[in-house]
């Protein structure tokens, strides 16, 4: 879309405000709104100034001036504002016009550029399956003398005896019993459909929605794949709509990986493939799961670099409450066709040559999508470049339920890091694949590690309520 097209869109839709947005290191969006009457062609060329020192992980106060440069391909009308508002995603530049090396969106674009210069293909396609919970109430605190959290949902199994409904209506979702039931057990059909309606109006192509496995309102909505940066933009749009539709219904939505103990967590399974023009590069009839050698090497790169990669795809302390051996999350660093217990799964049901892809199942939605997708692509490209054979390195294929293996057999399988600190250690030791072509910089990685170690330390030094049960009577 040209700048003139955007200006015409503003006029035709009586837009009052233009909302310029950027994304910080954690993946949270920030925005500044300008009156539509003040937005001209020069605005898209010169950008919108903001204070980078007020954004965690960006710049110091002595060099705080930064610029949002709008991307006209990313616009959509905000479905929630009372005053007609157009949303525009932006890249971050320094005042002298240079790309800012800590801008996640620019890193995603550099990864796409590197793919083309590497001579492998012309485009990488991504499709995340981002799960979330819809709760009715959330409360939490962490102070000097108190630490607690509490969430509630009218459909949760622990509410079979709740009286606040004015007569309990039953039909609660059993623990780990929420996968695709019909109403009235699934009480959130309409809210998910409303989310999908607004996503469609905002430009997403919705493929399906359903209730997920956990009790208390776990959900999933799938949208159509696209190229790397566009998919990251779409995921930001997706999360914005999910959060705000839930709010309109008097509920609250979270993409936190593990908000409930003892039930399934929320992952973000990421489907990915590479094309050269219209030719899919991951398909070869007769190969394992009809995968090409290029795809096998891409898998090799993902699994070989997985410990470091996970610092970017699962970058929260809560991520590792989900990534626990023996539970539902795929912690086993192996690949397999159709097997959901493997970290890398190759879908085989109703797959065409153009639909041939690999699915990395370990990530979750605390990831910044621009950084996570870029890192996955760089790991896969390193595997292709170095012809990393995952079978020779002991990564499978494993075409059986890994959870049912004996303890001796499980010892042969590598697992993901057990904590955020371990993942950051791995990234510190293995980052060169990310800095190929200047996609990520060493300075960016060091800054990211420092930021995340601060989060890990903040959690580690705080007193956990469960410790009172373990140790109070010592």
Task: Give the key terms.
single chain, Ubiquitin-like (UB roll), Gln_synt_N, alpha+beta, 18 strands
Structural write-up:
Belongs to the glutamine synthetase family. The chain is an alpha+beta fold. The protein has 2 domains: 3-100, Ubiquitin-like (UB roll); 123-471, Creatine Kinase, Chain A, domain 2 (2-Layer Sandwich). 32% of the residues lie in helices and 22% in strands. Strands 7, 10, 11, 12, 13, 14, 15, 16, 17 and 18 form a 10-stranded mixed β-sheet that branches. β14 (268-276) and β15 (279-280) form a beta hairpin. The model has no long low-confidence stretch (mean pLDDT 94).
The number of helical segments is 14
Q: Supply the number of structural domains.
A: 2
User: What summary fits the major beta sheet?
Assistant: 10 strands, mixed
Give the fraction of residues assigned to helices. 25-40%
Give the class from helix and strand content and strand pairing. Answer: alpha+beta
CATH class of the largest domain, named: Alpha Beta
Label the overall shape.
globular
Uncertain stretches:
none
Distance between the termini: 67 Å
**Please, what is the CATH homologous superfamily of the largest domain?**
Glutamine synthetase/guanido kinase, catalytic domain
The CATH architecture of the largest domain would be: 2-Layer Sandwich
CATH topology of the largest domain: Creatine Kinase, Chain A, domain 2
Number of strands: 18
Strand content: 15-25%
Rg result: 23 Å
Report the mean per-residue pLDDT as an integer.
Answer: 94
